[in-house]
Inverse folding.
């Protein structure tokens, strides 16, 4: 890992995620279960927010090398076709079995996102490939 160890990365993600939850508590103090209502930052930066949540939950991220070849199996987050919608896929190198694990792993990702107050819907794309779409978060009630 460039720029630090895996332990350093884990600590940084933990601090960032705890900071995000604290922002939720402060910004949503007047509503029940403030940890379950996304903050404004999350609505403006949905791809980053989803990636942070999944990494903080210990779910591995997929990765590519400098040539663009996939070298690690895990979640891959990016924007969907609609503004504010995030697409989550489970990808891995050829022969990794990622497509076979996708259903269970995406459901695990969806459970993390739902606990944080986001709607995560599962779809099938071309050739039956599964993916999630994290819908735009509603603002705080009131």
């Amino acid at each position: 890992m460039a720029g630090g160890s895996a332990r350093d990365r884990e600590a940084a993600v933990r601090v960032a995620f705890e900071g995000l939850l604290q922002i939720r508590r402060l910004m949503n103090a007047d509503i029940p279960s403030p940890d379950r209502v996304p903050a404004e930052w999350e609505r403006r930066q949905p791809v980053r927010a989803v990636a942070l949540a999944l990494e903080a939950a210990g779910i591995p991220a997929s990765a590519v090398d400098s040539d663009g070849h996939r070298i690690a199996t895990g979640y891959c987050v990016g924007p969907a076709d609609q503004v504010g919608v995030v697409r989550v896929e489970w990808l891995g190198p050829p022969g990794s079995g990622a497509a076979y694990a996708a259903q269970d792993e995406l459901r695990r990702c969806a459970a993390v996102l739902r606990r944080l107050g986001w709607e995560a819907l599962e779809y099938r794309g071309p050739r039956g490939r599964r993916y999630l779409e994290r819908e735009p978060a509603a603002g705080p009630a009131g």
Q: What stands out?
A: The beta strands are 63-64, 70-72, 74-79, 86-91, 120-124, 130-134.
